[in-house]
């Protein structure tokens, strides 16, 4: 079974195929109203820790280190991961993030982890 997990900026308008819209940032994105965000849930607990987010600072040179440390944080905090897996099994999920960098952010890492876990369980 194929599970659809999209990764999109919270600043982009909702798409018809979004399914469940989940904000995976610890901080609310500047300039976005709750109505405009059109969230299903804000899952703060799945976001990188404040210390990790500050260390990374969206520096692409620290990407590999960030990815490894964030995966370790996800493994140490399985409940929100299970919650997202259940949502993905039920239908499309869109992971929303606030940063401008579309390639180096927690939603990219999280989507890859979720795909791995869903593929492994199949």
From TrEMBL:
Pfam families: DUF488-N3i
Top-rank lineage group of the source organism: Bacteria
Protein's UniProt name: Uroporphyrin-III C-methyltransferase
The organism of origin for this protein: Komagataeibacter europaeus (Gluconacetobacter europaeus)
């Amino acid at each position: 079974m194929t599970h659809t997990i999209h990764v999109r900026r919270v600043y982009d308008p909702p798409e018809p195929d979004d399914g469940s819209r989940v904000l995976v940032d610890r901080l609310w994105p500047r300039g976005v109203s709750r109505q405009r965000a059109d969230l299903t849930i804000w899952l703060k607990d799945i976001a990188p820790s404040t210390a990790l987010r500050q260390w990374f600072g969206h520096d692409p040179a620290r990407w590999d280190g960030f990815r490894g440390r964030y995966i370790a944080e996800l493994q140490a905090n399985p409940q929100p991961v299970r919650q997202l897996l259940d949502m993905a099994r039920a239908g499309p999920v869109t992971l929303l993030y606030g940063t401008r960098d579309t390639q180096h952010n927690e939603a990219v890492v999280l989507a890859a982890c979720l795909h791995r876990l869903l593929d492994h369980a199949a």
